[in-house]
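Hey all, sorry for the wall of text incoming. These are the two entities for the joint prediction.
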Amino acid sequence: MKFRIIHKSTSGKARVGEIETAHGSFKTPVFMPVGTQGSVKAVSPDDLLDADVEIILANTYHLYLRPGHKIIENLGGLHQFMNWHGPILTDSGGFQVYSLSKLRSITERGVTFQSHIDGSKHLIGPEEAMEIQKALGADIIMAFDECAPYPSDYEYVLNSVRLTTLWSRRCLEYKTNDAQALFGIVQGGMYNDLREMSARELVRMDFDGYALGGLSVGEDRETRSRVINESRDFLPEHKPIYLMGVGTPEDLIESVMLGIDMFDCVMPTRNARNGTLFTKKGKLAIKNSRYINDHRPVDEHCQCYTCSNYSRAYLRHLFMSRELLSYRLNTIHNIYYYTHLMEEIRQAILKDNFSDYRKNFYEFQTGENISG
Amino acid sequence: MKFRIIHKSTSGKARVGEIETAHGSFKTPVFMPVGTQGSVKAVSPDDLLDADVEIILANTYHLYLRPGHKIIENLGGLHQFMNWHGPILTDSGGFQVYSLSKLRSITERGVTFQSHIDGSKHLIGPEEAMEIQKALGADIIMAFDECAPYPSDYEYVLNSVRLTTLWSRRCLEYKTNDAQALFGIVQGGMYNDLREMSARELVRMDFDGYALGGLSVGEDRETRSRVINESRDFLPEHKPIYLMGVGTPEDLIESVMLGIDMFDCVMPTRNARNGTLFTKKGKLAIKNSRYINDHRPVDEHCQCYTCSNYSRAYLRHLFMSRELLSYRLNTIHNIYYYTHLMEEIRQAILKDNFSDYRKNFYEFQTGENISG
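and here's what came out:
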């Protein structure tokens, strides 16, 4: 993997870069739609390409449990399996072990947990996380971390940082495949000195990139911004920085300003399935009865497949009638909104007017259930 | 609407024809996928075009109740509303009033029933059925009929034929729009003399085409074949004949042989969502564990989008994981199977070897859960 910075903002930490992987390159800051089980929910790989998606994320934990990483490896790896031939990032499974599984016990060896699907017992440690991710064959893989719940006391988070450092070193030692870039994950909860400790320890090991983990777990926005801002300063300029699991369009804009290069979040896809659509003017709840006769597209500024072909009235009808096409058309729109938000952000940084762009973005927002 | 016969089978009643409508023409025998609520479940109009679909069916009863025919009319009609610009046929609502609604009472005026969605009370008679279908704007519309339950005694079915004749005449009298072809629906249950009566009365009124209704309601296959065969003889050669709500691939082949030109059925789409896929060798239940490692497409003879891009192993994984993409990919395959079955049937008739084709079709079938 190669990362180069194309342009740094003259004010603030925002920058535009390019990452080259074994399956193609993409510009940063970038948003990665989430394909948890080897499918970005409700859409096909062709829909993703049409929406200008360049990289997607898949979840190690889910694919390990079903269908199993060995099966995917035997079928030619995840790219081949799911028919997505662009870059893929897989997470390490650490966050899902924390958020989805039951009865876990954590030792230096790894985490023992019960499957959320059938209750079967499993152990994933750093070696297993690397073995699984090697079998899946993603272009960017993540070191196995321990994500502390929020809130957690200082002692718990200190131990979580200690484990994350230990496990990250073992991931680096296990890694043998140069076609896969390996990122370390900074933990440390909301404690600045622990974030610093975690970041410094990982940076000494020289990962291909660094992620900020343990955020978007319930903390308020101000706390999150503080942690991002402070953590960022302990990480090298010349490596890509990935903020995991964040977030809203506003989160993306604010985090790019703090120097973040990569994002993933279920927000565009999950909101789409709930009938919440993103537009330049704000969020639109498609089930609202005001749209029953509305011949206009979701967003008159949008060029996506959905906005080019379907009215709000039809999308409302599909949603109210629980037609499966509803989920796909809504998801296409929301993903397109996110990829084009990132494209606009990159253009603004390149033209050195990102702070103007940010101001305009907020001025355009007129609130929920917009009518035009 | 224009119908011309291109070629008649030298043995049997099968024929190839062409129907020209206000939204384009298509060859017969034809299969129409069902878009009940203004969407063929799980797929988009582009998916239908890619699967070589030429005409779809939509349900008057459903669209009347939600979103309402006036709303669709105000939005430019059903073609515009759902972004399908090819031919559409709408049924009359008669069958759904019989199969879906509660507490109906039938008089010469029409049928009073309660909505299956919200329990609200409605009256649909022949005039309403025509008004609704005029507002929807389909290319082929159906006269309002009374579909007798099965089994029904002779007296009930006699009255049902009497009502259907009365209502069909009122539909013809109401009709003013020449861009919409109007088909009459033959009723008469499983009684040959009542089928004859119904057919003769409708033929005297000179509809643009004739449908056989009241079949696929629980009767056995032999009874159905008998009724189709006998009814067909009372209907004119030079008009298209449409067998409503039928059926399996075998049903289509057998019915084409009896002189049927048009079909609709939820079978390919509903089966797709249940994970049952059609292949040249028979039905394949994608959830079967034998496919967990199977890199082959569903059907190695199939050129559809699904078979061109995805393995049985991936389709099984999507289905087991309840991913929405599963329903779309399965539906695309099954619809393609049906459209290409019809294309093969037409080619066989044109080459005068339909009976060989039919024999080969059955010889290829090796039963469920095929492995290769």
